[in-house]
Amino acid sequence: MELSQLEAFLEAVRRGSFRRAAEALLLSQPSVSTRIQRLEDELRVPLFHRMARGVRLTDMGRTFLPFAQRSIGILASRNGSISWAWSGGLPQATKRSGKSANRPQVTVLNMVCSHSFLNRNSHPIF
Predict the structure, then answer these.
(1) Is 55 contained in some domain?
(2) 13-41 pLDDT per residue, tens
(3) What is the CATH number of the domain that holds 50?
């Protein structure tokens, strides 16, 4: 799981669309879609209902949301290259310095986020 995947997930939640999330993150829409798809593949659950005019969270997406928010908060407090402004309960990343390519892969999320999420879930896939 990567920080960029969580950023895309949270921005899509906030904006209600992958296209608007991509605009906010200064990415292409296919890049945001790929990041979210990889996150869904890793978690083995769909996080969004894809509709003609945007996206909305699935039940599993609503369950995952607080874990993603908490994980971003933990990582933000330990990463000096990103400042976080909380708006409506969702973090918005603003890069202060460094290249986005240097963002760390978020292996700690397997403990903080995925482990807790997967263990609390009664979804038959688990």
Answers:
(1) yes
(2) 999 999 999 999 999 999 999 999 999 99
(3) 1.10.10.10
